[in-house]
Amino acid sequence: KIGIGVAAHGSYALIGAVAMLGGVTRITISLTVILIETTGSVQFGLPIFLTSLTASMIGHLFNEGIYDIHIELKHVPFLTWDPPGWYKCLRACDVMSLNPITIPSRAKAGKILALLQDCTHNGFPVVL
Q: Whole-angstrom Cα distance, residue 19 to residue 53?
């Protein structure tokens, strides 16, 4: 015997559950915090985090996470991390109208109502 203890069976079950959840959901830090709170033991923190990180990285090699897949399946409009390449050379003056309709910070309700009824868009800058 070389003095190395045997881990309890529950430890293997915990790490297996972390690997499955980390690979499917791709949430590493929050999964680690939730399971540390659930077990009530900080000693599992590093193994849980490393297992979750490894499962997430390996999952990214094969497909997207389950939440990303469901966002696409339900056709939810979702912005990507990076804008399209042609957005990088645009300035505000390239996309704004020449004479914007503004609402002053102190305006009467009738004027605002008339403005909302006459315009086809819904964005109005507030001028202070």
A: 9
